[in-house]
Amino acid sequence: MWPSPVAPSRAAVSALARSSSSGLISVAVAAKALGVTPARASGLLTRLTRSGWLTHLRRGVYYLLPLDSESAASTTHHDPWLVAIHLFGPCYIGGWSAAEHWALTEQLFAKTFVVTSANIRLREQAVLGLKFVLRKVPSNRVRGVPTVWRGSELVSVSSRERTLVDALRDPSWLGGIRNVADALSTYLEGPNATATALLREMRSSGSGAAAKRLGFLLETLEFPAGTEIEKLLARLPAGNIKLDPAIPSRGRLSKRWGLWINANVHLR
Predict the structure, then answer these.
(1) What is the pLDDT of residues 133-190, one digit of tens each?
(2) Residues 45, 7: contact at Cβ < 8 Å?
(3) 90: preceding bond cis by omega (within 30 degrees)
(4) What is the CB neighbour count within 10 angstroms for residue 29?
(5) How far is residue 36's CA from residue 38's CA, in Å, rounded to a whole number?
(6) How many CA atoms lie within 13 A of 237 on its CB side?
(7) What pLDDT is attached to residue 253?
(8) Is the CATH code 1.10.260.40 the one for domain 9-64?
(9) Any idea of the CA torsion for 220, 225, 231, 235, to the nearest 10 degrees?
(10) Most CB atoms closer than 10 Å: which of 13, 110, 195, 215?
(11) Which residues of the chain have pLDDT under 50?
(12) Where are the domains positioned within the chain?
C-alpha cells in the first residue's frame, strides 16, 4: 500500500512496469500492482501521464513510455495484437491478420484486422504507430474463439475454419473474393483436408450467403466434397446475392447457388 495519495513517480512506474510485460496498463492492473483502490490508481495514472511517464490510449488504458522515447507521438509498440485486445476488447484477431497467422495467404497487410463487439466510432484507427481495421459484430460472435500466446498474454484469434467462414460471409475481410478463393484452396490442400471441419464451422457461425459462396467455390476449385455439397444446397435461403458484394457489376447468374458470379475465380 502506498503511504500517501501522491506516490513517488519512479517507484510507481517501476511497479507498473513489473506488472505489464507489454507496457499496456489498465486501471485494474495498476490498482493491483500498487496495492491501492481503483480510484486512487486512476488518479495516479493521470498524474504520471501529465508527468510524461505514460500516454493515455483510451478510457482506463495507458501505455508506459519507453525511457528513450522522445514523445508519446513518436512512440510505437512491437505487437499490434496486444494493443488490440487492450483497446478494442472484447475482440479477436480475424480477417487477413488471422489468415496470415495460419499461413492461408501469402499477402502481407499493413493493417491489423480486429473483430470486436465493443462500441467503436471509426472503422480504421491508428494507435502507437500501428494501424487497425475494425469490424463490429454482436457479442455472441466474439465468444468461444480460441486463443494463442503472445509473450505472456493470451490473444483470441479466429481458427482457420472460422477465418474462412467469416470471409465467406464478407469477402472484404480477406481483401476480396479472389483472396478468399486462394485461402480456401490453400486450406483444402493441407494434409488430410476434408470439408467436414469447415462445414461444421459454417453451421456454427456462418450464414446463408456464406454457404452459397462456399458451395460455389468448392465446385469451382473441384474439391471432392461429395454429399457435403448436397447438404449445402438443401439449406440455402431464397434470393440471389453477389459473389463479391464490393464489385458493382452483377455478372452472370448461377441459379444452382443463387449467386451473381461477378468475379473470375480460377484454379491456381
Answers:
(1) 999 999 999 999 999 999 888 999 999 999 999 999 999 999 999 999 999 999 998 8
(2) no
(3) yes
(4) 18
(5) 7
(6) 10
(7) 96
(8) no
(9) -30
(10) 215
(11) 1-7
(12) 9-64, 77-158, 164-268
